[in-house]
Protein: 2-oxoisovalerate dehydrogenase subunit alpha
Organism: Poecilia formosa
Amino acid sequence: MAAVSSMSRISGLCRHAVRQTAALKSPRLLQRRSFRVTAVQQQQQPFDSSLEKPQFPGASAEFVDHLEFIQPNVIAGIPVYRVMDRQGKIINPSEDPQLSKETVLNFYQKMTLLNTMDRILYESQRQGRISFYMTNYGEEGTHIGSAAALESNDLVFGQYREAGVLMYRGFPLDLFMAQCYANADDLGKGRQMPVHYGCKDLHFVTISSPLATQIPQAVGAAYALKRENMNRAVICYFGEGAASEGDAHAGFNFSATLECPLIFFCRNNGYAISTPTNEQYRGDGIAARGPGYGMLSIRVDGNDVFAVYNATKEARRRAVAENQPFLIEAMTYRIGHHSTSDDSSAYRSVDEVNYWDKQDHPISRLRHYMTARGWWSEDDERSWRKQSRKTVMEAFERAERRLKPNPELLFTDVYQEMVPRLAKQRESLFRHIQQYKEHYPLDLYEK
Ligand SMILES: Cc1ncc(C[n+]2csc(CCOP(=O)(O)OP(=O)(O)O)c2C)c(N)n1
């Protein structure tokens, strides 16, 4: 038996070698290999060993003759870039992105529509109509400002609290609802928890729950786009909590060394569930990490949609033109609970939440800006709120009435042909459903 298995291993290796040789002959692969070789050759420098300075390949610096540790606060107090003050007044006119009235109204309508959708879906969960939900309250400016600054075919890797980015790209309310209700129209066929959206047509990669996995994935995608010379960028969203994961380090370092057209967009909203930022990290936030990786970085006021827009637009332009990653840390505040499984009154005060809700909210700031220009009145506000609420309610009612996906779909789309293990599970599921059919309302599912 041992001889047989080692023979089959050898023949497996031979087949592998043949495949590799064939692959090397493919012109496409040859081109890619030469891309890598050229990149290495370009970096070769003449080696001058006569210089009286450190020759270590891993550092470029002078020698010193006194012992001194670098202070952790060497990068501290990174300023927060903003365009508008809290009353929506432009601070420095040269930073005003001068967006048209139509564009600004679209920003506002998307931000408020997201807020309305959140309220209705949050309530749906409280009433037991959906299993779970996560609101985006207070972070609307980070979503819309960044989404508007991208090209529509740039690839988005989100964490889970970026529904506004997808909304800005045109994902319809019906599909948001279909995903949360896991009904037959859901693009994910009802297999994911609510808020785990994804849309291939809108270049929005499906959300996955394990934190920070999107970071190295985004780097790989950006590297691929660079190699294909696509003139496209990748944006990768994550929270300041996710930035503590090892995957964030791997992603930052790979993106810098591989020189990827990528924007790391950190939503620093003050909390990772119940962990406040002062327990999450010791340095000056996430932006301070950029220089350590050799990355251009900026901190912006995430509640100022224009500041987010300007920073993302410039980062996007340079990321593609110069093939290098950028790190944007958008300072904001998570006004809602972490999710419907959380009660944030256990770890933060009502006064703190009220401050952000009433005095420093991205939606009210933009509204002040529009009102000052005579672009938005009380009447506009009333009729828009009424109309948008009606649109959301109608989508919600349609989603609730819709059938659930055929249970057969639980077993599809992973393997091209069903493997025996899965066939066995399928058989046992349907036997179970048959036996206890009074507990399974199959008439609510598509046949
Ligand atoms: C690897 C991993 N660890 C823990 C969790 C549980 N978890 C889900 S969300 C979350 C907090 C993340 O906070 P942050 O990245 O700041 O994003 P925010 O929720 O504030 O938007 C945690 C710990 C998880 N999903 N995955």
In short: The beta strands are 155-157, 204-205, 234-239, 262-268, 271-272, 275-276, 296-301, 326-331. Residues 16 and 22 are 10 Å apart (CA to CA). The two ends are 48 Å apart (CA to CA). The pocket of thiamine diphosphate is lined by residues 161, 209-211, 238-242, 267, 269, 271-273, 334, 338 (CB under 6 Å).
